[in-house]
Specification:
Layout: H1 2-10, H2 12-30, H3 37-47, H4 49-61, H5 67-97
Helix pairs in contact: 3-5, 4-5
């Protein structure tokens, strides 16, 4: 219990920033019209390329005997890639809806 309190007191500013980001995110998403939720989510999925790059960097810097870091990094790369591809697929399908039919 004491270690948790020490962690909180040493990282108090970061915890405040994370809490503030949660509230700002809820306010921003809450004010988006329902028509725009799908484009917003597909764009957010496409941005997850940052997760893929971060996971690749972590896997590259992990020691060869650190199996937990390698497994979690691999899972992050696979799931992040699926999220990026899914974001692009949904965006492409939405853009197809607005093209004129021949």
């Amino acid at each position: 219990m004491e270690s948790i309190l020490n962690f909180i007191s040493s990282n108090q500013q970061i915890i405040y920033i994370v809490i503030l980001m949660i509230f700002v995110g809820i306010e921003v998403i809450g004010r988006v019209p329902s028509v725009l939720h799908t484009p917003l989510m597909s764009g957010a999925n496409a941005i997850h390329g940052v997760v893929v790059i971060g996971a690749i960097i972590i896997m590259g810097k992990a020691e060869t005997d650190n199996y937990l870091a390698l497994i979690l990094g691999f899972l992050a790369v696979v799931l992040g890639t699926l999220n990026v591809v899914g974001g692009f697929v949904v965006t492409d399908r939405m853009l197809e809806m607005f093209k004129k039919k021949k």
